[in-house]
Design the sequence.
């Protein structure tokens, strides 16, 4: 159900929906993903469809760190509670506990049968859960650094009929509206919108905090709910996963400024940029 | 497979983005192969004048949503207009470029159409009735090949993947009803879109600097080398180390948590080549690395390397490039 706030008319003067939420507690949801660390070497497994996970360190998706931080900052400013939500197997509990240690109040893991879901199936499962939890703000990373799809945030917003700011590099929350900025090619655009909203977070939005010992201890006692969902069939099917095409054999042209003429020759005759 | 292929044409301030002509070219190539037709969708304020340019890349019909309210991008309004255009045109595949606008817009359209989607494809082909798309994952540490089933279907194409190809189309205008205000979200203004600076992802040459520059003062060497290639040709990038150190803004970071670039020439100055940096640039056609450490991992992906201190090599390199261009 779409909250009633959207059916109210915009104020001509402010361009915003007259708010009622000042000082009121805000329900905030953060969508997170458990992914291989960005400094991890990725090896395709023997099946040609998955990666070798042995010895691989998995972390909270780096862009989701900014989402968790923004949610915690918003809670500290407005009051309310922060719930983190993920779709994934039991191994993702580690990442959820990490979010609880950072300061989130509650975590939910949605387990699904079968293999990896596509963007449509994943976003529909998340959107269903969001409808049930009825938050006013949903934060997530601008993309997960495994699939690099950047679909989930805007997909959920469209499915729910909510506003969306993707790739947020700044975010300001008003009483019933928000504004923020996002990088575009060669500049930025400043965006405004109504609540409820989905905000996907870029690096630079804030300085994510670290978990301290007290947070880690408290996280063990915070509620972590695990539920199952039945996804729709994915429409995008994996055919294969392959290593990147090999780079040509490197050539060292020489040492110091003496090597410059050889480089100029390559730039002129082979790369053809001079 | 598909009868109608719809390409979204991105315009900002009445100028068509080259990357969306690449998307249109892909749609045209696939439509030709499948015996189908390619249409374009254009959204904005008073943009009908762009239709002849679009027709010049093979669009038979141009689905046009025009309104003063659509002068600036609104993800909400544009997605509704494009989904409407997809329905009106009977499109089974909607293709856009994976630009800042495209990657916000197409997932919304895909949801409105209940469609599957491939993001940031670098290769797309038809195999019989199936559409097969390949895209980099883990920021290019691996490539995933996907098969698409069910229609409609949405796809974003990585910019600079194929050159736009002119081809005559009818370009018949078909009006699409423009969504009416209030919108859920809207761009209020474009900030600092400096026209003299070449966007990182669109530049043919990217010159990036890292910790080997030693001091933010020395950044002028990176900028100087970029400028040496001529006005508007080269863009400047940065490694995560110098962004985290506060020398450069995050918008210039190249790597897994920054921009992924794929220029003709990438020049890495004083960048050691951490895995997460390589992930952001290793699809560049040519890579040149200058680093004083001969064992730096950047040399493993470079076509050409110079072992040396960037502070010594770059000033002479700038002069040599200027001399070569004047010759």
Sequence:
């Amino acid at each position: 159900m779409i909250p009633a706030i959207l059916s109210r008319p915009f104020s001509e003067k402010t361009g915003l929906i007259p708010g009622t939420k000042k000082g009121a507690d805000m329900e905030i949801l953060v969508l997170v993903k458990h992914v291989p660390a960005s400094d991890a070497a990725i090896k395709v497994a023997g099946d040609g469809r998955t990666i070798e996970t042995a010895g691989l360190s998995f972390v909270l998706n780096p862009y989701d760190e900014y989402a968790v931080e923004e949610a915690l900052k918003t809670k500290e400013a407005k009051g309310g509670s922060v719930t983190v939500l993920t779709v994934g197997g039991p191994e993702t509990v580690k990442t959820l506990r990490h979010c609880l240690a950072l300061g989130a109040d509650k975590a939910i893991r949605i387990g699904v049968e079968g293999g990896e879901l596509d963007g449509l199936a994943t976003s529909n499962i998340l959107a269903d859960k969001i409808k049930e939890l009825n938050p006013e703000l949903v934060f997530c990373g601008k993309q997960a650094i495994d699939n690099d799809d950047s679909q989930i945030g805007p997909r959920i917003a469209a499915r729910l009929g909510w506003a969306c700011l993707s790739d947020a590099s700044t975010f300001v929350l008003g009483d019933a509206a928000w504004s923020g900025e996002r990088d575009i090619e060669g500049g930025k655009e400043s965006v405004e919108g109504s609540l409820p909203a989905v905000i996907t977070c870029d690096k630079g939005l804030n300085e994510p905090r670290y978990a301290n010992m007290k947070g880690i201890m408290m996280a063990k006692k915070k509620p972590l709910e695990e539920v199952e969902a039945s996804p729709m069939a994915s429409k995008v099917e994996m055919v294969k996963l392959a290593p990147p095409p090999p780079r040509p054999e490197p050539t060292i042209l020489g040492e110091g400024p003496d090597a410059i003429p050889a480089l100029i020759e390559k730039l002129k005759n082979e790369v053809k940029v001079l | 497979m598909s009868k109608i292929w719809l390409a979204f044409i991105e315009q900002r301030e009445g100028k068509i983005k080259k990357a969306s002509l690449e998307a249109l070219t892909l749609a045209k190539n696939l439509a030709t192969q499948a015996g189908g037709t390619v249409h374009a969708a254009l959204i904005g304020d008073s943009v009908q004048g762009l239709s002849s340019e679009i027709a010049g890349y093979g669009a038979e019909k141009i689905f046009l949503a025009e309104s003063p309210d659509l002068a600036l991008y609104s993800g909400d309004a544009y997605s509704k207009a494009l989904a409407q255009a997809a329905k009106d045109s009977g499109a089974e595949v909607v293709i856009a470029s994976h630009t800042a606008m495209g990657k916000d817009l197409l997932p919304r359209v895909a949801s409105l159409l209940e469609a599957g989607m491939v993001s940031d494809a670098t290769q797309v082909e038809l195999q019989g009735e199936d559409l097969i798309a390949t895209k980099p994952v883990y920021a290019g540490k691996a490539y995933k090949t996907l098969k698409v089933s069910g229609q409609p279907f949405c796809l974003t194409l990585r910019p600079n993947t194929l050159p736009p190809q002119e081809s005559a189309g009818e370009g018949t205008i078909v009006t699409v009803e423009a969504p009416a205000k209030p919108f859920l979200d809207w761009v209020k203004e474009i900030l600092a879109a400096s026209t003299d600076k070449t966007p990182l992802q669109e530049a043919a040459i990217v010159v990036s600097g890292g910790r080997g520059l030693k001091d933010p003062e020395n950044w002028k060497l990176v900028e100087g080398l970029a400028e040496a290639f001529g006005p508007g040709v080269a863009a400047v990038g940065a490694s995560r180390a110098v962004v985290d150190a506060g020398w450069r803004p995050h918008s210039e970071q190249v790597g897994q948590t920054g921009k992924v670039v794929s220029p003709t020439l990438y020049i890495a100055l004083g960048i050691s080549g951490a895995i997460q940096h390589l992930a952001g640039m290793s699809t560049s056609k040519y890579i040149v690395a200058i680093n004083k450490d001969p064992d730096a991992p950047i040399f493993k992906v470079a076509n050409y390397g110079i072992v040396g201190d960037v502070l010594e090599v770059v000033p002479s390199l700038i002069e040599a490039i200027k001399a070569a261009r004047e010759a």
In short: Chain A touches chain B through 93 residues (CB under 8 Å). The longest strand of chain A covers residues 163-173.
